User: What shape does this take?
Amino acid sequence: MSKRRGFPEAPIAFVIGVGVGMLSLGVLSKLSLLPTEQDVDHYKEVRDFVLDRSVDEPAPEKLVREALTGMVGSLDEYSRYLSSDTETSSFNRETQGSFTGIGVVFEGPIEGGRVLFPMSGSPAEKAGVRVGDLITTVDGVALAGKTEKEARDLFTGEAGSTAVLELTALDETQRSAEVIRESVLDPTVRHPHLIDEERKIGYLALTSFSRETGAEFERTMTALLELGLEGLIIDLRGNPGGVLTAAVEIAEYFISEGVITKTRGRGASIVYEKTNEGGASAPSMPLTLLVDGGSASASEVLAGALQDHRTAVLIGSPTYGKARVQSVHHFEEAQAIVKVTSSYYTTPSGRNLDRSPERPWGIKPDLSVEVDAQTEALIHRHIRRYDPPETAIKALFAWEDATGTSLLPTDPEDPQLEAALALLRGERPAGS
Assistant: This one.
């Protein structure tokens, strides 16, 4: 298990700091007008002037939102004030690793309504939604003509509520289905399989790090080990990061003991380290990590820890270079979320990976394999695709045969993946 040394986690420290600040404000405000109060008074003056003189009368709530957006966004390129439904729901889905809905993957745009497949174990699958079904209406509202957001909103709602779908199957038969909306896992571990069954080499991609990623990874590893897994490729390409502790949990799987990462903010630093209790789950498994310029933040925490501990060989191109940790606060009454950079992190050996004009940044792979921008885009798109459940494969093949269309994409050309495979096979990677 991991152990943290230093201050409590940032959100707790943030709450305590605000409380102390408010107490101080209450005392000092009796003595003098604080700069903070002057700032608020000045904001009101400017707001009132704008409301009074602007040729197009602005909405007061818009002025407040824009002011807050500018204030937080001015701190650095990663700090954000999120207030729209789209922004907050997207952020919550990314961090929580789940969403409330019916759980279907569409063939094309969601407003087109054609189901590619229902996700495994999803409410849609339980209600009998099938491969190729065209969803024409949701609760009596037609999908045709809707924007993507309008269509998506029809499928979301409170957990336990019912969505009534009108469906037209591929054979043109029509039927209704009542789907009870539930919390659906949005998997961040994708495409796990034995990529080389003879040598028992496994592959999995991590698309981001949510609160569910650690548990997903452990379940996936258990399944691969039952198939006889002897070597592994973890694909972090295009992974923008996410929840720091999820990356730490995965690092612990391969690191027996020692520091995983260190964070440094305005207070004492926090050290995330693996204690020797129980050791690593797979300390000696041959391991490669695929990285590129889209691998950032928590991806670099994981890659940096495994590289410093010499537990994995990194293959690909240099990573993005984001060595910052955000603290997040939910303002429920305003239905807003603020994330602010609260600390920097370093690798176990003390490397600072953050972008800077004064020094190199990011992680340099152990084996450099460059690809062009078009190939990289195809690889990223392929990685982010959802895996159809085994129960849907036969129906998808039948649909392809009947229409002559390609629904299940072929693997793109991937020199970086080929290099990782060659290395685990004991061969010399091409171009090395």
Observations:
- Residues 189-326+342-385+413-424 form a domain with the 2-enoyl-CoA Hydratase; Chain A, domain 1 fold (CATH 3.90.226.10).
- The first helix runs from residue 10 to 28.
